[in-house]
Specification:
The protein is mainly beta. It contains three helices and 17 strands. The structure holds 2-(BUT-2-YN-1-ylsulfamoyl)-4-sulfamoylbenzoic acid and zinc ion (ZN).
């Protein structure tokens, strides 16, 4: 079990997930050093299938904004690749910076992206609930996609247009008929490694699948992320930025890479 040691003093906008965890041997995120990754010919392409009608709402939880899905059916699932079972989509969210030189949680050869998308899935073959899976080996699979600044992402705009409705912490807005497949790069090459949640409880239950190619999005779309607030209505305004955890030691882990 992981014990969070006492929190050190932090600037006001730092989040609790900067807490260093004692006893962790497979914490996330990490810096992926491509030359040290192992090409594994047995890694097949991911099978990703999402049903836009499973999309339910957007929730500002004070750390990020989560786009939440109905996981009562088997319509939005990922399988294949490093995964032994099929995993149901629970939510997706992003991490981003106050400035363009930071924001992603994972880095590639120390290269930082301005934002990173996480699609969180849970192992519905082995576990009965998401909450059980969070605390279990092979419980979760998170697909990470890097975002770089460039052309406006047309598919993302529907989500961006809804963000003002969830400006404040603890606000939610109904959000339907959105297919997250539009944010998966056309190149399905990826790195994969055993890791953890990057926010509390930082449980070591995650198989990470990091897509090698980034997707592009526009400055105005990133500005919309930065206009969200960490704080609830009526409290001091604190822009939701720099909601990423620092890289963690690789320790005794190997990052595998596809050769698709
Ligand atoms: C109890 C508990 C829990 C974790 N929930 S989560 O896996 O959806 C998640 C995962 C991640 S991440 N960055 O590890 O994918 C971040 C944030 C969340 C979240 O609820 O807010
Ligand atoms: Zn995340």
């Amino acid at each position: 079990n992981l014990l969070a040691c006492s929190q050190t003093a932090k600037p006001a906008n730092q989040q609790s997930w900067q807490t260093q965890i004692q006893g962790g041997s497979r914490q996330s995120p990490i810096d992926i050093r491509s030359s040290e990754s192992v090409h594994d010919p047995q890694l097949t392409p991911l099978s990703i299938s999402y049903d836009p009608s499973d999309c339910l709402q957007i929730w500002n939880n004070g750390d990020s904004f989560l786009v939440e899905f109905d996981d009562s059916k088997d319509n939005s699932v990922v399988s294949g690749g490093p995964l032994e079972n099929h995993y149901k989509l629970k939510q997706f969210h992003f991490h981003w910076g106050a400035e363009n030189n930071r924001g992603s949680e994972h880095t590639i050869n120390s290269l930082v992206y301005p934002a990173e998308l996480h699609l969180v899935h849970w192992n519905a073959e082995k576990f009965r609930t998401f909450d059980e899976a969070i605390f279990s080996e092979n419980g979760l699979a998170v697909i990470g996609v890097f975002l770089k600044l460039g052309r406006k992402h047309d598919g993302l705009q529907k989500l961006v247009n809804a963000l003002p409705a969830v400006k404040y912490k603890d606000s939610t807005v109904e959000f339907s008929n959105f297919n997250p497949s539009c944010m998966i790069p056309s190149c399905l090459d990826y790195w994969t490694y055993p890791g953890s949640l990057t926010t509390p409880p930082q449980t070591e239950s995650v198989t990470w699948v990091i897509m090698k190619k980034p997707i592009e999005f526009g400055d105005d779309q990133l500005s919309a992320f930065r206009s969200l607030l960490f704080t609830p209505f009526g409290e001091k305004l604190e822009n939701m930025v720099d909601n990423f955890r620092q890289q963690q030691p690789l320790m005794n882990r190997v990052v595998r890479a596809t050769i698709l």
